[in-house]
Amino acid sequence: MSDKKYYVYLLLTEKDTLYCGFTDDVQKRFQQHIDGKGAKYTKSHKPVKIVWEKEFDNKSDALKEEYRIKHKLTRKQKLELVNG
What is the pTM of this model? Predict the structure, then answer.
């Protein structure tokens, strides 16, 4: 079994929006977003900081959580995640 970890994260943007993503290296992925190489959304909504992240032992669970956050949660619910 692999020791590789996967993460789902929320970024706060300059326009006060939240972006949800998935990666195996949060800091590297954040830098890609800053450099304009992360996602189409973060090219026009510049990321300010990582406000939340959660670790997973497998890719499948991480992708399911990313989908849930992106497609099922309201902004208010996402902020509740951030605030614990």
Answer: 0.94
Q: What is the DSSP string of 52-75?
A: EEEEESSHHHHHHHHHHHHHH--H
Q: Is residue 1 part of a domain?
A: no
Nearest of 19, 32, 26 to residue 66 by alpha carbon: 19
Whichever domain contains 21, its CATH number is 3.40.1440.10
Range of the structural domain that residue 32 is part of: 6-82
For the chain, how many structural domains are there in total?
A: 1
Q: What is the pLDDT of residues 40-64, one digit of tens each?
A: 999 999 999 999 999 999 999 999 9
Strand 18-23 versus strand 6-13 pairing type: antiparallel
